[in-house]
From TrEMBL:
<dbReference type="GO" id="GO:0005524">
    <property type="term" value="F:ATP binding"/>
</dbReference>
<comment type="subunit">
    <text>Composed of two chains; the small (or glutamine) chain promotes the hydrolysis of glutamine to ammonia, which is used by the large (or ammonia) chain to synthesize carbamoyl phosphate. Tetramer of heterodimers (alpha,beta)4.</text>
</comment>
<dbReference type="InterPro" id="IPR002474">
    <property type="entry name" value="CarbamoylP_synth_ssu_N"/>
</dbReference>
<feature type="binding site">
    <location>
        <position position="262"/>
    </location>
    <ligand>
        <name>L-glutamine</name>
    </ligand>
</feature>
<keyword id="KW-0315">Glutamine amidotransferase</keyword>
<feature type="active site" description="Nucleophile">
    <location>
        <position position="261"/>
    </location>
</feature>
<dbReference type="InterPro" id="IPR035686">
    <property type="entry name" value="CPSase_GATase1"/>
</dbReference>
<keyword id="KW-0055">Arginine biosynthesis</keyword>
<dbReference type="InterPro" id="IPR006274">
    <property type="entry name" value="CarbamoylP_synth_ssu"/>
</dbReference>
<feature type="binding site">
    <location>
        <position position="303"/>
    </location>
    <ligand>
        <name>L-glutamine</name>
    </ligand>
</feature>
<dbReference type="GO" id="GO:0004088">
    <property type="term" value="F:carbamoyl-phosphate synthase (glutamine-hydrolyzing) activity"/>
</dbReference>
<dbReference type="GO" id="GO:0004359">
    <property type="term" value="F:glutaminase activity"/>
</dbReference>
<dbReference type="Pfam" id="PF00988">
    <property type="entry name" value="CPSase_sm_chain"/>
</dbReference>
<dbReference type="InterPro" id="IPR017926">
    <property type="entry name" value="GATASE"/>
</dbReference>
<keyword id="KW-0665">Pyrimidine biosynthesis</keyword>
<feature type="binding site">
    <location>
        <position position="235"/>
    </location>
    <ligand>
        <name>L-glutamine</name>
    </ligand>
</feature>
<dbReference type="GO" id="GO:0006207">
    <property type="term" value="P:'de novo' pyrimidine nucleobase biosynthetic process"/>
</dbReference>
Length: 385
């Protein structure tokens, strides 16, 4: 079956908006939050990013699939998106590294997609109305009555209030030895961690212990870590209070902490700030962020639909008693909090993805900043310090 002989498919949004196209990848029904990603490259890294669990991802770039899929670039063990929307699938794969085509990979992992629709129209609609639940219907499901399809979409769970960490996390501890000059054991709470993150941490000298999201403070202390790291991941941070409580125990132990994306939101809540849902979120590899310490503008990779509610223009006191906190990074498109730094304890976080396997690499220095923070902390704790 070729891309130009696939059966009909429909994308149905919860407000009743409907788009018809052709089936792409697996056929059937899939439901999720419809979001758009603005990267022109790196679709394999996007698809295999666990942060996208529960989301139907639309690529704003019109031509997708040119370079196929390979065994070297996945960010995790499978494709995680709930569904996939593209305008013009590539007719051929034209890269020497490719092992299979994109549609073959989608079909193998059971990912229902749709092609041949006006993705710009969908994007503009979401930008105006906000991210919303949607469904892709293909195969036998494409012939369902449109009212029935809409009913199915409206009965799907909303992203707000969902805890998805358990669906994407490892179930057993996995260890990646340090490849740089060794600093010590690092406890990584897997909320949807990406392989590039693990490799970056190992290169900085950490023996990376990836722990299941169900880990306790006793599990963390058992590996005698020099620091703790919270990964990116899907879901609503307000639905992850167990991970917030665990992080407060980490902060109480005065262990250095670094969090990215979901980890940034959880640090915000651990410090005592709130979180809220963005209208349509930040997704893609071209988001401008200001580092307020250096004044440098970084082009960064994002995938988040929630943000921290903290004072941007002034240093504030942690409502939970962890001292002074400043917003270290700010998104230049909408003034959203993109990073936090605690001034009285060794903890900081950013909302974006400094590992950015598909690029850009402007923010990769944050791994060096974390390694130096841990070295400084160890130096202070040394007997002769």
């Amino acid at each position: 079956m070729t891309l130009f002989r696939t059966g009909p498919a429909a994308l149905v949004l919860e407000d009743g908006t409907r788009f018809t196209g052709r089936a792409y990848g697996a056929t059937g029904t899939t439901l999720g939050e419809v979001v758009f990603a603005t990267g022109m490259t790196g679709y394999q890294e996007t698809l295999t990013d666990p942060s996208y669990a529960g989301q139907i991802v639309l690529q704003t770039a019109p031509h997708i699939g040119n370079t196929g899929m390979n065994a070297e670039d996945p960010e995790s063990r499978r494709i995680w998106v709930a569904g996939y929307i593209v305008r013009d699938p590539s007719r051929v794969v034209s890269n020497w590294r490719a092992d299979e085509s994109l549609d073959e990979a989608l079909e193998a992992d059971g990912i229902v997609g749709i092609s041949g629709i006006d993705t710009r129209a969908v994007t503009r609609h979401i930008r105006s109305a906000g991210s919303m639940r949607g469904g892709i219907f293909s195969g036998d499901a494409a012939s369902l009555d449109p009212d029935e399809q809409l009913r199915i979409v409206r009965e799907a769970p909303e992203m707000t209030g969902r805890n998805l960490s358990g669906e994407v996390s490892v179930t057993e501890v996995q260890v990646t030895p340090a490849t740089g000059e060794r600093i010590g054991n690092l406890a990584v709470l897997d909320l949807g961690v990406k392989q590039a993150t693990i490799l970056n941490l190992a290169e900085r000298g950490f023996d990376v212990h990836v722990l299941p999201q169900s880990a306790t403070i006793e599990d963390i202390r058992a590996i005698e870590p020099v620091a703790v790291f919270y990964s990116n991941g899907p879901g609503d941070p307000a639905a992850s209070e167990g991970h917030v409580d665990l992080l407060r125990s980490v902060l109480d132990d005065r262990l250095p902490f670094f969090g990215i994306c979901f980890g940034n939101q959880l640090l915000g809540r651990a410090l005592g700030y709130g979180t809220y849902k963005l209208p349509f979120g930040h997704r893609g590899i071209n988001q401008p962020v200001l580092d307020r310490e250096t004044g440098r503008v970084e082009i960064t990779a994002h995938n988040h639909g929630f943000a921290v509610d903290a004072p941007i223009d002034e240093t504030s006191d942690s409502p939970h008693g962890y001292g002074r906190v400043e917003v270290s990074h700010v998104g230049l498109n909408d003034n959203v909090v993109e990073g936090l730094r605690a001034l009285d304890i060794p903890a900081f976080s950013v909302q974006y993805h400094p590992e950015a396997a598909a690029g850009p690499h402007d923010a990769n220095y944050l791994f060096d900043r974390f390694a130096q923070l841990v070295r400084d902390d160890l130096s202070k704790k040394a007997p002769n310090a």
